[in-house]
Amino acid sequence: MPDNESNPKEIVPKHSECIACGKLLDCSEFFNDCTVWRTHGNYGSLEFDPMSDSTVCEVVICDECLVKKSKVIRVVKRTTRQRIVSEQSFEDWKKYIKELDKKSQHG
Ligand SMILES: [Zn+2]
Q: Are residues 65 and 73 in contact, defined by beta-carbon separation less than 8 angstroms?
């Protein structure tokens, strides 16, 4: 893989394509209206398992697709890389956050 580790220079993408719908997203200053998803790969993948701390595979998902897919996206808390201590769908997590906001507004 070509890299510039001996002469590090930050590469800032100007645009990225949503992996779900293909919409072109403005990333010139920061990732607008989308989230960035990164993976270090994992044992078991036949396609991406570089076994390196600095190499990640990265995609963006627009906020609209995040909502559309909220039933299948998992929000998890981990104590370690492997151990999951809580898990819920992104849809349920959003409901939970809304409830917390309501409670904090009403004292
Ligand atoms: Zn999208």
A: no
Q: 43 alpha carbon to ligand 1 midpoint, in Å?
A: 28
CA separation for the pair 51, 3 (Å, rounded): 16
Using alpha carbons, select from 61, 67, 59, 56 the residue that is nearest to residue 90. 67
CB 26 within 8 A of CB 15: yes
Does the pTM of the predicted model rise above 0.90?
no
Q: Could you tell me the end-to-end alpha-carbon distance of the chain, in angstroms, rounded to an integer?
A: 54
Whole-number Å distance, alpha carbon 80 to ligand 1 midpoint, is 30
Question: What is the 24 CA–ligand 1 centroid distance (Å)?
Answer: 9
Longest dimension (CA), the chain: 54
Structural contact between residues 25 and 16, judged by C-beta atoms closer than 8 angstroms? yes
- pLDDT at residue 9 greater than cutoff 80: no
Domain boundaries, the chain: 1-69, 71-107
Q: 106 alpha carbon to ligand 1 midpoint, in Å? A: 35
